[in-house]
Amino acid sequence: MSTLLVYATAREGAAVAGKHADTLELGVGKVAATRALTRALVESKPDAVVLVGVCGAYPDRHLRAGVEPVPVLGLCTVASEMLADEGVLSPEGFRDIETLQLGGIGPYAADAELTGKISAVLDCPAVSGATVSTCAGVDALSQAYALRSGAAVESMEGAAAAAVCESFSVPFAQLRAVSNHTGDRDMGAWNLEGAVSRLTQGLGAVLDAGVLP
Fold this sequence. Notes:
The chain is of the alpha/beta class. It has helices at residues 10-13, 30-44, 112-122, 139-149, 158-168, 192-209, and strands at residues 3-7, 23-25, 48-57, 75-83, 87-90, 93-96, 108-109, 126-131, 153-155, 172-181. 33% of the residues lie in helices and 26% in strands.
């Protein structure tokens, strides 16, 4: 049994360095993640994939009612992902590719059992995620994404990785540490190094607990 641990950037990869034999740097964004992960699943056929990385969290002021915020430096798993900016922006507003009958936007579900085990070890929430090509560095975009998706966190690879694993019938989970609030960057409370440290600690606890295949 083998789990492939994947991450987007070398900085996030520091969280897995020396902890696990099977790792892969995907690159940033949906295209890079899809290409790298597809190749890996064809060649190595792992029993599960776990994506580890940092993410932005939608601040309280942008969230839909009933969605709990995740604090900066908080850990979370991502139970489902959707593509939040695939579509057309028109004078009448945003229309996604599913509405236009041009494709799907999700949600792409993570493996419930594996996600639940990771969340239980870390006592952290399992949330919904939004995957975007343009990160929300201004309030208007952050609020649009958060309300459109109903998500709590934002990344650039989550839905792509989940969709690839779904197509190969490989169990998939995500562990994220929040590095910042989305929206206007002067209100983001950025702490990238702290988030990588939290991710390192969290992943270490998960591996020590032996919950990965």
